[in-house]
Amino acid sequence: MAFVRELLDHFVRYRRLRGFTALGARRAAAARSYRAHALDAITRRKPGTGGGWDEVAGFRIRHLGSEWMRYIYREVFAQREYWFVTDASEPFILDCGGNIGMSTLFFKSIYPHARVEVFEPAPWACDAMRETFAANDLRDITVHNVALAEREGELVLHHDADEPGSAVMSVFPGESLDAAHVVPAVRLSSFVTRRVDYMKLDIEGSELPVLREMAAAGALSMVEQIGMEFHHHLDPSEDRLGECLTLLEQQGFGYQITGQVYTPITRGQFQGLMIHAYRKHPAAH
Fold it and tell me: I want to staple 155 with a disulfide (CB 3.0 to 4.6 A). Which of 28, 171, 221, 263 is the partner?
């Protein structure tokens, strides 16, 4: 039964990609990439170890590990977690938590003339995405090898030394994060000098401090839409979701929340919640 559910899940995602007209000319290539990745998953074919090059949605991508690359591809392209609609022909996007650049490729697929500022603390991931952007001759992208925080300075990035391509890295210690790397920390508000059409936040537990800093600096009022992965119960003893939602409401945002519900309910269990926030203009009140 589990195998049948897996097949159905892959089929639904594949069909949705085939019908995702926002991808334009890259729609067929995106579906083809997913078909190849799904086939590997169904046949339990183990991906090669180490980094290399692959093809996603018609782009050549430099990755640091096939398994994590495919995971991020499914999240970004197949599940479309960061899809947004705007009237801007050249939207300004903040990609916070860029990893190997998959979400920036997605943004460039749906809005080819977008201007994207990417923030990623891991230098090895920044090197990979710069190679990807150069290989595909992508313009109007700036990569910042920094962590985002409430105050400028330095932070320790905890990561898995054996999995450089892992999307699980954080400035907060974790059991599987056995290596540490000191990185510069900056305030996101210092990069906001104009209207931000979309802000992606996937920064492994630092999202609330960054939102606080943006709000205190008056920069959050310049953001139209937010796609944020909220790491609920990263610390099982802390409940900060209410604070996050209250801050968004006070800043004039409405929101929708998606996330997996685990049963039976376990106190303090971690949940990755997607919060899709949108600015309420005066006409909507």
Answer: 171
Helix (H, G, I), strand (E, B) or coil at 102: helix
Q: 233-260: per-residue pLDDT in tens?
A: 888 888 999 999 999 999 999 999 998 8
* 75: DSSP letter: I
Distance CA 261, CA 74 (A): 20
Nearest to 200 by CA among 31, 72, 65, 113: 72
**pLDDT tens track for 40-78:** 778 877 766 678 999 999 999 999 888 888 889 999 999
pTM, two decimal places: 0.92
Same domain, 98 and 59: no
**H helix intervals, 142-263:** 207-216, 241-250
Q: How many other CB atoms sit within 10 Å of the CB of residue 34?
A: 23
Distance CA 162, CA 68 (A): 12
Looking at the fold, whether 221 and 112 belong to one and the same domain comes out as: yes
Domain that holds residue 263: 82-284
Tell me how many domains the chain contains.
Answer: 2
DSSP letter (8 states) at residue 81: T
